[in-house]
Specification:
5-stranded parallel beta sheet, 27% strand, 9 helices, single chain, Rossmann fold, 2 domains, 13 strands, 311 residues
């Protein structure tokens, strides 16, 4: 990777141009120069990661199927190129840890698009934590009325898991980011209702070293009466706070302070947060390895433990 001149826009490569890859490219287009894009299914794009790396980008955005994330991220990092990867970073904690270790060895910045912590609603929730006193319970949910539209999502070898890895990892990341501590106890249950070898409904109960008890639930194709349900509620000795989506939207999120039967707004939509995690990574691109990325491995370990408990 060539040094980025002060004041110059970084040259990014984009690997994978599905809807999420295109969305992230469009979101940060004013901040970067697009060095090249690679997707064998897109006319006019490069056909491989190797061709893209030959363009010597200042960073690489990976938005390919989950089974490819770890291998492609490691290849880029070993070539000296910082990586921003779609979640999940790997199909399990071992793959995620291997990517983090590659970033550490190369001293290159690694980011993962666990984007919900970058929403205004999640930030408002975190800012309110000191006012809640001792948080003793949390309930989080992510229910999607639709399933993924790509066949590989339903193949365990290609996807690593079903709704728990696809949606639940966002919930686990929020728990660790908001409440801290270690997960000391895990219970889990998964259901395979769609005839696939990955789950489409999952529930879990976590106990943290802080003493807090956390309930998680996530699903695909659940008849929730809207496009989706996204919620994160925290209950403390001096009141509560919650994040939830508005009108079934995947994008519009509200945060509220809860006092008994009353709710006070902390953050309201609209909030254009889709590219915020990537923009944060771009802003730090001149730096080297950030050990905070270890939190992603810990989130993967918790997801692995839920699968193990469910088995």
């Amino acid at each position: 990777m060539s040094a980025i001149a002060v004041g110059a826009k970084p040259r990014l490569g984009f690997l994978g141009l599905g809807w999420i890859g295109r969305a992230r490219l469009e979101a940060v287009a004013p901040l970067v120069e697009v060095a090249a894009v690679a997707d064998p299914a897109v006319p006019g794009a490069l056909g491989s990661l190797e061709e893209l790396l030959a363009m010597e980008p200042d960073g690489l955005v990976v938005a390919t199927p989950s089974a490819l994330h770890a291998e492609q991220a490691i290849a880029a990092l070993e070539a000296g190129v910082p990586v921003f990867c779609q979640k999940p970073l790997g199909r399990d904690a071992a793959e995620a840890a291997a990517v983090v270790e590659a970033a550490r060895r190369a001293d290159r910045l690694l980011g993962v698009d666990l984007c919900y912590r970058h929403t205004a609603a999640a930030r408002a929730l975190r800012a309110e934590l000191p006012a809640l006193g001792e948080v003793y319970a949390a309930d989080l949910a992510f229910h999607n009325a639709y399933g993924p539209d790509k066949p590989w999502f339903y193949d365990r070898e290609l996807a690593g898991g079903g709704c728990l890895l696809d949606l639940g990892i966002h919930l686990v990341d929020l728990v660790l980011w908001l409440l801290g501590g270690e997960v000391v106890e895990v219970e889990g249950r998964v259901l395979h209702r769609g005839g696939h070898d990955v789950e489409d409904y999952a529930v879990a109960r976590l106990r943290l070293s802080t003493g807090a008890v956390v309930s998680l639930a996530c699903s695909w194709n659940l008849p929730v009466g809207a496009d989706c349900v996204i919620e994160a509620s925290l209950y403390g000795s001096r009141g509560g706070a919650r994040l939830r989506n508005v009108g079934g939207s995947f994008y519009d999120l509200r945060a509220e302070r809860l006092r008994g039967t009353a709710a006070e707004s902390l953050a309201e939509p609209p909030d254009d947060w889709g590219g915020r995690a990537l923009a944060d990574w771009i802003a730090r691109l001149r730096g080297g390895f950030d050990p905070d990325i270890e939190r992603v491995v810990e989130a993967h370990r918790v997801v692995d433990r839920i699968y193990e408990a469910a088995a």
